[in-house]
Amino acid sequence: MNISAFDRCADCGACYNICPTGAISVSENGLFYTPMVDAEKCIDCSACASVCPVNNDIDGNGPIRACAGWNKDASVVLKSSSGGVFYGLAEKVIAEGGAAFGAAFSQDYKSVRLCSTDEVPFEKLLKSKYVESMPQYSFTEVKAELEKGRKVLFCAAPCQCAGLSAFLGKDYDNLIICDFACGGVPSHKIFQDYLSELERRYKSTVKSVDFRPKTHGWKRYAVRTEFYNGREHLRLGSEDPYLKCFLRGKLSVRDYCHECKFPECHISDLTIADFWLNEKLSSLRSEDGISLVLCNTEKGKKALDEIARDYIFEELDLDAAGYNNRIRISERNIIRHEEFMKRYAEEGLEASCRAMLPSSVAEKLKNRIVRLMVRKRR
Question: I need a labelling partner for 11 at 20 to 30 A (CA). Which of 222, 230, 253, 313 fits?
């Protein structure tokens, strides 16, 4: 038995990292990354099927503590998605001679992969990337560093963290696993097509992509794409077709994301998120970003305590703060997701977005007001 027997897949990376013969590769040809089995190399050892966290029962962690806050260094907060907690965790691990693993854009910004600070500058791992990432052989690399005695911070989507844990098969004292509140992962192919269309429109190649610019404030989603000819594409999440199709109804995410079990089953020491309910659940107020942190293990609590001096933190009621941004599963969502994918294949992103998520007059007016306010601040 191998993973080809399963219909459900999150592309967490566990199967091809554990395969002893390298029989599993990842196809990039479809809308989503898909593991493929080479029958000639497969020895039917069932290692891949046994390690899969999606199709096997797993026991999750915590949370056992909740707090929220931000880094005292304003520059750290501004270059982070929310309050900069990942920055502090990674900075400490790196200062101790360890390595931090996280998601980084490729050189042309058209794909995202999990890699370490041994491979790319630390800053490449900062901020959210709203597109499915390729784990590649990062699990194998993590294990190798752990076996050397190096400290490792691994930060990725909940399914990828579960995959790493299953691959390792045991806990390591020198490993900190950190996941985040995940709203699903959009198609890499849709993202690539989106950027290619922007390059055509702006007559230049992409220089950078920022899914969380704080130009319009921390709580307003936006995307900024810069080009080598000096031009810039800056749009609010409610008007950019790529972000809009992701944020509203999760139209562009993997099929499995609509039934994901990991928001209630975190296999991590820490879970980080934007603290959207700060005004309701705390006295914290900030226009630049606030992180919600859930400690799921004692190791997670210790890791957070070790960086606390660099942060303004407020302890939260655990029951109230333990919310997440799981996709709401409904038959309507699934039907609309399927309809969007069919439309996209026939009409492309912008036409599909206009048809399924038309902007109201009120929404257009609101977006215009927000843009005018930003221009005045500039």
Answer: 222
Q: Establish how many alpha carbons lie within 13 A of residue 13's alpha carbon, considering only the half-sphere containing its beta carbon.
A: 25
Q: What is the DSSP letter of 83?
A: S
Helix axis angle, 158-168 to 138-147, nearest 10° = 50
291 and 69 Cβ atoms separated by less than 8 Å:
yes
* 16: enclosing H helix or E strand: helix 14-18
**DSSP structural state of residue 90:** H
Q: Which of 216, 262, 259, 260 is nearest to 237 (CA)?
A: 216
CA distance 301 to 261: 24
Give the model's pLDDT for residue 127: 96
Structure tokens at 255: 């099929």
Write the CB contacts of 303 (distance below 8 Å, at least 6 apart in sequence). Answer: 89, 176, 269, 270
Q: In this predicted model, what pLDDT tens digit does every residue of 103-123 receive, in sequence order?
A: 999 999 999 999 999 999 999
Long-range contacts of 201-205 (CB under 8 A, 24+ apart): 202/227, 202/229, 202/231, 202/233, 203/229, 204/228, 204/229, 204/231, 205/108
pTM, rounded to two decimals: 0.94
- Estimate the crossing angle of helix 298-307 against helix 85-95, to 10 degrees: 90
Residue 375 has pLDDT above 70, yes or no: no
DSSP 38-56: -TTT-----HHHHH-SSSS
User: At residue 378, does pLDDT exceed 60?
Assistant: no
Residue 7 CB-half CA count within 13 A: 2
Tell me the pLDDT band of 242, cut-offs 50, 70 and 90: very high
pLDDT at residue 245 greater than cutoff 90: yes
Nearest of 152, 199, 145 to residue 177 by alpha carbon:
152
